[in-house]
Amino acid sequence: MTNQLELPPDFIHEAPKGFHYEVDLFRRNIFRICIVNDGFFSYTDVAPKSVWGFYDVKKRRYSAPINYSKQGNPVDINDTRPYTAMQLNLNPLEAALYG
After folding, report:
1. C or N terminus of the chain, fewer CB within 10 Å?
2. What kind and span of H or E run contains 98?
3. Which run of H or E residues covers position 64?
4. Are 75 and 56 in contact (CB under 8 A)?
5. Distance from CA of residue 57 to its chain's centroid?
6. How far apart are CA 51 and CA 22, in angstroms?
């Protein structure tokens, strides 16, 4: 059973066009934030979703996802993107072009 919760108050992203966010309780003090594709898919009636990241309510800290059921390292919300909290692993040239 999952209850729909609200995004944390300091969450800075707006869902991209055709997507929305869902929040559920992952552990007692940790929310899982998912990004859900609102498009129509012929293979399923359920909208596909991916984990955007995790939020620790007590520490007020975001974490990148490793997968749907495992949280990774803490991240600064300002270093995340609307689609994911996963960090880009860029070499110096890529960082100069995309960073």
Report:
1. N
2. helix 92-98
3. strand 61-67
4. no
5. 15
6. 9
